[in-house]
Automatic annotation (TrEMBL):
<keyword id="KW-1133">Transmembrane helix</keyword>
<comment type="similarity">
    <text>Belongs to the UPF0057 (PMP3) family.</text>
</comment>
<keyword id="KW-0472">Membrane</keyword>
<dbReference type="GO" id="GO:0016020">
    <property type="term" value="C:membrane"/>
</dbReference>
<dbReference type="Pfam" id="PF01679">
    <property type="entry name" value="Pmp3"/>
</dbReference>
<keyword id="KW-0732">Signal</keyword>
<dbReference type="InterPro" id="IPR000612">
    <property type="entry name" value="PMP3"/>
</dbReference>
<feature type="transmembrane region" description="Helical">
    <location>
        <begin position="37"/>
        <end position="59"/>
    </location>
</feature>
<protein>
    <submittedName>
        <fullName>Sna2 protein</fullName>
    </submittedName>
</protein>
<keyword id="KW-0812">Transmembrane</keyword>
<feature type="signal peptide">
    <location>
        <begin position="1"/>
        <end position="27"/>
    </location>
</feature>
Amino acid sequence: MTSRDRNACTDILLILISIFLAPLAVAIRRGVCTADFIINIALCCLGYIPGVVHAWYIISKYPARSSAETQPLLA
């Protein structure tokens, strides 16, 4: 599998997760301590559909981080 195929599989999995738990999908893609996560929680409290649409927007706008970006640097 190429990295492009893995990114597509990750996006599909996140879309499925966002249908049931929209804030979880946003937290996986952007992180927990971000404005996007807080906005998504607020939208889910105001209505379920706006939270899901926002999660889909976040998934489509921000690509998955590469493994080099997520691994800590050695001192």
